[in-house]
Design goal:
This protein is of the alpha+beta class and about 260 residues long. Helices cover about 15% and strands about 35% of the residues. It has 4 helices and 17 strands. The chain has helices at about 1-15, 105-120, 175, 215-225, and strands at about 25, 30-40, 50, 55, 80-90, 95-100, 120-125, 125, 130-135, 135-145, 165-170, 190-200, 205-210, 230, 235, 240, 245-250. The strands form 6 sheets. The chain has a 5-stranded antiparallel sheet with strand order 1-2-10-5-6, covered by helices on one side. Strands 3-8-9 form a 3-stranded antiparallel sheet, covered by helices on one side.
């Protein structure tokens, strides 16, 4: 009876879903992992009135917590996506969530919203006037589990055609951004990146920070500085100037 009880406990333990983002070794000695990934749908063009969009606070609120929604055997390989709409307040706290594109697998559809409501928090969006904003985000929640594989580039892949790119008339440097001695930023800020909407006349009409400092006044001033940069506009093959997007990245000088 004792041996039977021990076997039952062991079976129950192995049947538990794996912990998120904690690798394990299968019976075939291959490493496996179960995890959740979030993809936020956003516009490709910077919003002229925004400095930064809602951004997941990965550092303070890691969401790879708890267990995968289903048990995973060695032969299983999951790649499941659930589409949701998440309403986020200006404080960065989710207020409500609903599934809009179900995966068709109840365990995953039922898991997505409660999990994000519990574990995910955001840095608020910020407009040029300094107001913090919430928003309704369209998010694809992707569940993956199975053997870890190395990504390889397939033979015969045709590269995408390059798009016309504008060029700043003066380099965008740390000084342009406002980085330097006495900038008042936390030591954790190592740099910034983002994108600019450059019009056909070379002026900047939009600035969106992909890696903001999260210091509101600095982020606003940074974008105002970048809006003052003049560009040689992007041009089509016939020489016609067109509006386009310019991506930038600047490291903060080490002291």
């Amino acid at each position: 009876m004792i041996a039977l009880a021990i076997a039952t406990v062991a079976l129950t333990q192995t049947a538990l879903p794996p912990k998120l983002a904690e690798p394990w070794i299968g019976a075939d000695r291959n490493q496996r992992e179960a995890s959740i990934g979030l993809q936020i749908d956003s516009s490709a063009e910077p919003d002229p009135e925004l400095v930064r969009e809602l951004e997941i606070n990965w550092k303070d609120f890691p969401y790879q917590q708890g267990r995968f929604p289903v048990a995973v055997a060695d032969a299983d390989d999951y790649n499941v996506a659930v589409g949701i709409l998440l309403d986020v307040a200006a404080t960065g706290v989710p207020q409500s969530c609903r599934v809009v594109t179900p995966s068709g697998k109840a365990a995953f559809d039922d898991h997505a919203c409660p999990h994000l409501m519990r574990y995910v928090r955001f840095y608020p969006a910020l407009n040029r006037a300094g107001t913090r904003l919430g928003d309704t985000l369209a998010i694809r929640v992707r569940y993956t589990a199975g053997r870890l594989r190395m990504d390889t580039v397939a033979d015969g892949v045709v590269p995408m055609a390059s798009r016309p790119t504008p060029k700043p008339l003066t380099p965008i440097t740390a000084a342009t951004i406002g980085f330097g001695k006495g900038d008042g930023l936390p030591s954790s800020v190592g740099g910034t990146s983002g994108s600019l909407k450059v019009e056909a006349d070379g002026s900047v009409s939009g600035c969106m920070l992909a890696a903001p400092t999260q210091v509101d006044a600095f982020d606003i001033q940074m974008c105002e500085r970048l809006r003052a940069v003049k560009f040689e506009p992007a041009r089509e093959s016939d020489g016609r100037a067109v509006a386009s997007r310019f991506s930038f990245g600047v490291e903060r000088p080490r002291r």
